[in-house]
Structure formats: C-alpha cells, structure tokens
Amino acid sequence: MEFKIRLAKKSDMPAVLDLINELAAFEKEPNAVEVTVDHLEKYGFSEHALFKCFVAETNDEIVGMALFYPRFSTWKGETIHLEDLIVKEKHRGKGIGKALLKAVIMYAQRHEIKRVEWVVLDWNTSAIKFYENYGAIVHKEWRTVQLNEKEIRNFKA
C-alpha cells in the first residue's frame, strides 16, 4: 500500500477529528473529546496557529495523523509536544506510524528543536515498544499532572 505524508490542510480537519475520536475510544475515553472541527480549524490555521499536524493519506483518504505544538523548556529551550499520533486500526503495521513520527522528527531537525516529547499510557505496550524501537526514552518516574476545566474554575489560592 502506498501512502504519503504531508502537512494537514484546513479541509482535512473533519478526518483529523475522526482520528482523534478513534484514539479516544482506544484509550477508553470515548466521550472525553470536546474539540470540534471549528476548533481545529481556528486553532490550527489562524494567524497565530497553536498546532501543526501531519497527515498520512492513501487513495485520497486520511488514515493517520500526528498533531504537535511548540513548548519551551527552561533547561533545553524550544521543544515540541507531540499531542497525538494515530493510525486507523485497519492501516496499522504498514509503516504509516513510523512515517508520521519521522515527519515530526524531521520537522524538529529542520527547526533546530532541542527535544520532542509526548506521553503514552502505561498499559499501551505496543505503543511503548514502537517508540522505544526508534530510540525514545520512556520515563517511568515522571507523572503527568493536570488541572481540568472544573478544577481551574474552582481553584482557590
């Protein structure tokens, strides 16, 4: 199967949202996605876009994506956070995930980014193996910390 990797266009956002929803279902959070196509279009393609996205396309169908955004590390400088990398289930095992990850890494190289980081669920052993096969370090001692909308609203100093 042939596929190509390219930067996403605004018109790809419905397919990107479908992939986000597929990932949420896989991660056992099928009702957690609140973002809409309008959000993706607004925050990905405005004058001050907040993210970039590579898509994998075969036969005019978007079958995978890697969405990432800039961050800043007080230790390293400019970094990238890879928010999601997903390939449709029926297209896995064909090199598409590797090609998407490579696209992000090559972007980082071209832009002299000091680090690419992301999170992976500890039970997703196939993803952990996939990332480790390409030299990624999976830190077991770091914990993701979040304040969600409710906690932010109710925060008292």
Automatic annotation (TrEMBL):
Record's keyword annotation contains Ubl conjugation: no
Cited CDD domains: NAT_SF
Family of the protein in this entry: Belongs to the acetyltransferase family.
Positions of the N-acetyltransferase domain: 3-157
Entries under PROSITE patterns matching the protein: GNAT
Keywords: Acyltransferase, Transferase
Origin species: Psychroflexus halocasei
Protein name per its UniProtKB record: L-amino acid N-acyltransferase YncA
One GO MF term: N-acetyltransferase activity
